[in-house]
Write a structure and sequence with these properties.
The structure holds two protein chains of two kinds.
Chain A: H1 3-10, H2 23-91, E1 98-103, E2 109-112, E3 127-132, E4 147-156, E5 160-167, H3 169-219, H4 235-284, H5 289-321, E6 329-332, H6 333-350, E7 354-358, E8 364-367, H7 369-386, E9 392-400, E10 403-410, H8 442-452, E11 456-461, E12 466-471
Parallel strand pairs in A: 7-9
Antiparallel strand pairs in A: 1-2, 1-5, 3-4, 4-5, 6-8, 9-10, 10-12, 11-12
Helix pairs in contact in A: 2-3, 4-5, 5-8, 6-7, 7-8
Chain B: E1 8-12, H1 16-28, E2 32-36, H2 39-48, E3 53-57, H3 65-74, E4 81-85, H4 90-99, E5 103-106, H5 111-125, E6 133-136, E7 139-142, E8 147-150, E9 153-155, H6 159-170, E10 176-177, H7 178-186, H8 196-208, E11 217-220, E12 224-227
Parallel strand pairs in B: 1-2, 1-3, 3-4, 4-5
Antiparallel strand pairs in B: 6-7, 7-8, 8-9, 10-12, 11-12
Helix pairs in contact in B: 2-3, 6-7
The chains are: A alpha+beta, B alpha/beta.
Amino acid sequence: MNTENLTASKQKPWQSTKLYNSSVFRLTLLYVLLFAGSVLAILSFFYWTSVGYLTTQTDETINAEIQGLAERYRTDGFTGLRVQIAERLSRQQPGESTLYLLTDERYRLMLGNINQWPDAQADPEGWLDFELNTPVRGASANRVGTHMARGRNFLIGNRYHLLVGRGMSELQEVRQQIVRAMIFGVIATVVLALAGGGVLRRSLTRRLEAIIRTSRQVIRGDLSERVPTRHSGDEFDELSDNLNQMLSQIQQGMDGVRRVSDNIAHDLKTPLARLRNRLEELRMVGSDTELREQMIDQVVAEADGLLATFNALLRIARIESRGKREAFTEVDLSSILRDLQELYEALAEEKQQAFDFDAGQKIVIEGDRDMLFQALANLLDNAIKYTPRGGVVGLRMLESDGETLIQVCDSGPGIPESEHDNVIQRFYRMDESRTTPGSGLGLALADAVFRLHDMELRFSNNHPGLCVTVVV
Amino acid sequence: MKPQSMIKVLVIEDDRETADYIQKGLAECGHVVDQAGDGKDGLLLADSNSYQVIVVDRMLPKVDGVTLTKTLRGNGNRTPILMLSALGEVEDRVKGLKAGADDYLVKPFAFSELQARIEALVRRAEPESPDTVLNVGDLSMDLLKREVRRGEVKIDLQPREFRLLEYLMRHSGQVVTRTMLLEKVWDYHFDPQTNVIDVHVSRLRGKIDKEFDQPLLHTVRGAGYMLSEPD
């Protein structure tokens, strides 16, 4: 393990990630920004419509007022206009803030509730925004200092200027209120969103922490650790369940590998130790050539046995990893069975075993002749090996329920049903058979060959003995 | 034991240790060995000299064993070729034999296996006698009548025993390994987990040697069997 890993694994899960590195934090920030942004957008829309509406209304009121006064001028002349303005001024209700100013061509005050022409530039349509030093009567009376107002200049009879306006303080106030509300709203939103994000982050972190803690344990080599679940069926539980299942799978695989490598180590260590001892002995042997020769034979046989074991392991691995049917040809199973009989019946007879044989019907399949022969020979080898003298060994092909079966049966000690699944594992040997010679790979190799041919291996009790059935 | 005549062998093998192991073993048996470290040198040597057997590794630098074999065969070179390979699967063997190799041996191998196969290859390359009768000592096999006699005694053999004896007689004076018998007599490439071949040979021995003074079928320790005339 390098030092970087060491320091990382010493830290608590969340100390190892900086705040701005945390994706939960970034998500929260994004959420706050989005939330504040949308609140701001809504408020802006509200501001735009309400303030806009109020401004338009003011302009319309001024226009209407001017139109009314212009009408009056047309019908009753300048005097009529003056009367009308005076009337309006006197009739003005508290709370209204319409400004009137009538001047001569030199902007000298003639009539109005403003005492001088405002010092502001009018736009081409005559609109001008200006400041008043005196409060306009009404809503803005309680205010001191300057007051905003908006008005329109209207030329009467090419001589007189008429300014009709409205105090804008009210609108200003409304506008300020809205802006204040907006600022407050956005601040409140950000604060609330941050708080919500914090809560969210905390709860996400807690769930993730459990997963991270478990994975740290697993990294340290404890494959039995599992992520706790709340059984609420949410996404985290689903993730945790999947992780747990994955861990179980890995653990099973690792156990298998460990078992196999333990067995390899055990099964290869013994012959290697024997080999070594024989070599030592060989050194001590004097000039007895006959004895030397004998011992060398033993050493070579021991090495050959080891090589055979490795070859079998490699073959199994190759068969298992290989794409199917690379070198498959048409193979007659019953002729393979006959060849097996011819080769192995003699071996059974040596042990005074009866050889019960039935080659069945000719059946041609796609397959590898040598491999199938090897696999079936392994089964027969075992059957003959484990059947005592005078027993019965059977090699049969038969049809049953539309399936073609090849059966290799013996009358040996058999295998307990609970062990049937284990016997095909590499190096698996029942304790009783540890002492008999054999690599413990014969069945594993046979199983790999049959699986390559889409055939299935079944074990059953032969009362007494074992029947190995190959389902073609 | 009938001494084997000297064989001229070319070993094309890039692994120095294996090549030396083969050379040393063969030299001890009285054979002459040339070495080539890669396929190109191997081709040059094979073309410019006449060897009785070429042992070629399947994996070679420059020109691999299969291509080399194909090239030699394409040039009309009919020298028996024994291919060595770490790949033992059927398709590998088939590929090697299809390219023109005469035999295929999977590494690691016992030296006796290699020696037996090399000697068998040389024997096979010799023009086969058109005889219909094989003789080893007083044992005779009539291939047409499918009859075997030892002296005057007629010996009954099963068909497979007949083939086994025929192979042994054709290679009399040579060591024949168990694997060779499985391949040539039973026509299967596989590793028997038991001494199944020994059982068949000892049965054959029971029929051809048991009743007679001079044994013909010998067990060669650490290698296999040999059928040979009595000294």
